[in-house]
Amino acid sequence: TEAGKEGLDGRPPANEDGTANETLYDQVVRLRQLMSILETQYSGDEIVLVFPDGGSPALLSCLIAGIPLNKCHALNFAPGEIRFNV
How many CB atoms lie within 10 A of CB 58? Predict the structure, then answer.
């Protein structure tokens, strides 16, 4: 089943490589937890986040900027891409 308009509904199909099959909502929860921990433990420090794919940093960019989550794929990062203006 599809995750639905906001990523809150059914799960995407299982992956064959063992990676999680998360909805956007699952990823939002994890990213918010990460940002909370970073803010608490490293307030005032410069932090570099490295992601294994382009979807998670795009989703984080949407969360920071208040962009609707159904638009996050337009912000996907290319392999090896670095953005400083987040």
Answer: 21
Query: How many residues comprise the chain?
Result: 86
Cβ–Cβ < 8 Å for 22, 33: no
Say yes or no to pLDDT of 86 above 80.
no
Q: Please list the alpha-helical segments (H only) found in 42-79.
A: 55-65
Q: Quote the pLDDT of residue 10.
A: 64
Instruction: Label residue 12 exposed, middle or buried (CB < 10 Å: 0-12, 13-18, 19+).
Output: middle
Task: Specify the pTM.
Answer: 0.72
Q: Which of 60, 69, 58, 63 is nearest to 8 (CA)?
A: 69
